[in-house]
Design goal:
Order of helices and strands: HHHHHHHHEEHHHHHHHH
Strand content: under 5%
Largest sheet: 2 strands, antiparallel
Mean pLDDT: 82
Distance between the termini: 60 Å
Strand order of the largest sheet: 1-2
Low-confidence stretches: 200-208
Number of helices: 16
Number of strands: 2
């Protein structure tokens, strides 16, 4: 390591000050700080009040995403095999899924880093470590067979419009990964919602398969019965052996990732628990209202919790320290309202059953307002100076 440090230190003069390669200083800094801690302290938000620097902070989030990523790759291959009537062992399914998922991740990182490097070079600031997480979160929210050009377009919109137009990491009000996904959803709804295209080997286009949230109950049939008859039992929803977006199918993997973030204090538990409480309370209220047995009104808390991308969103996206509130009461309210809005959108708007994405983006907009109200309220309770 000392040998590598000497090489980097001796090369630094060419990338800083009046060096010949000063325009590439952000790239050099990003490479150097992957291995070594940076010497200067961070001057701009988000601040990490710990002995970890921001890059190591983001590394913990990447570690928490590993169960979701590994299972997502495996499930992609598994669903492709099942679509053709084949039962694949883990290695076969994982390798088949890798052929579909890894290109999506590579395109996301390649295109996203291009924009990060471009804006860092133009603005003379360091490359944001936040994209390490955004570059993995974004692919996990996508269906496995989305065209790669749409992946490139979506991450471009998320980075440029969702973050860089606000001034970069620490100044954006919306989660960049969700912003890119929302753009793709409304621009190319066939690729992003309803039936998903399962990447089946030896076929050109794949095979269409319904997701849990797109299941409709027949006349006189309960929604829970329709889900079970279609293979979306609670156990399948919990473990994730179902069609869907790459990283959103397994509730168990999301819980494992969320637990790691809470234990390491990377994510604030108030947002996650508040969101789950909001979803449970709201789903129970709708469940008690008569006359909705054939809709998601009658699904109950467990189905709402395990179906769709709620656990993924509340664990890895709602807890983004930049776009979430900074006060503890604000975090409780923020999380609770995300859960409330998720269920409300699913029940009230059948055309957009997956309400988690809009719920989080909507609350991103009001996160600063929540902090402002709470801080102002706390200040009003102080004893005035006399």
């Amino acid at each position: 390591m000392n040998f590598l440090k000497k090489i980097l230190d001796s090369s630094e003069k060419h990338f800083t000050g009046s060096g010949k390669l000063k325009g590439l200083e952000p790239v050099f800094d990003a490479i150097k700080t992957v291995v070594f801690f940076p010497s200067p302290k961070n001057q701009y938000i988000p601040f990490v009040r710990d002995n970890l620097d921001l890059k190591r902070f983001m590394t913990f989030v990447l570690i928490s995403l590993l169960p979701v990523l590994i299972f997502g790759i495996y499930n992609t291959g598994l669903q492709a095999g099942l679509a053709q009537g084949e039962s694949l062992v883990f290695i076969q399914a994982f390798l088949l899924g890798s052929r579909t998922v890894l290109p999506i991740i590579l395109v996301t990182y390649g295109v996203g880093l291009f924009w990060e490097i471009l804006f860092a070079s133009l603005r003379k600031h360091k490359i944001s470590e936040g994209f390490l997480v955004t570059g993995l979160l974004f692919p996990l929210t996508l269906p496995a067979t989305i065209p790669l050009w749409q992946v490139a377009l979506g991450i471009s919109f998320g980075v440029v419009i969702g973050k860089e137009v606000f001034g970069g990491t620490g100044r954006n009000i919306l989660n960049p990964a969700l912003t890119g996904r929302a753009f793709l959803y409304f621009s190319y709804p066939v690729s992003m919602s309803g039936d998903v295209w399962i990447a089946a080997k030896n076929t050109v286009d794949g095979i269409s398969g319904a997701t849990a949230l797109s299941i409709l109950a027949l006349d006189g049939e309960k929604i829970t019965t329709a889900l079970s008859n279609s293979g979306f039992t609670l156990s399948n929803l919990f473990f994730g052996f179902i069609p869907g977006s790459i990283g959103e199918t397994s509730a168990l993997c999301c819980i494992l990732g969320a637990s790691f973030l809470i234990i390491t204090k990377i994510a604030n538990f108030r947002i996650i628990i508040g969101g789950i409480l909001g979803l449970i309370v709201t789903s129970i209220i709708f469940y008690l209202i008569p006359g909705g047995s054939d809709s998601w009104m009658d699904a109950g808390p467990l189905y709402h919790l395990c179906a769709g991308g709620f656990l993924f969103g509340i664990s890895f996206m709602a807890t983004d320290p930049v776009s979430a509130p900074g006060t503890n009461p604000g975090r409780w309210i923020y999380g609770f309202l995300i859960g409330f809005l998720t269920v409300t959108i699913r029940v009230v708007n059948p055309a957009f059953v997956e309400g988690t994405m809009l719920a989080i983006l909507f609350m991103n907009v009001f996160a600063s307002l929540l902090d402002h109200i709470i801080i102002k309220n706390n200040a009003s309770k102080r004893i005035p100076n006399v």
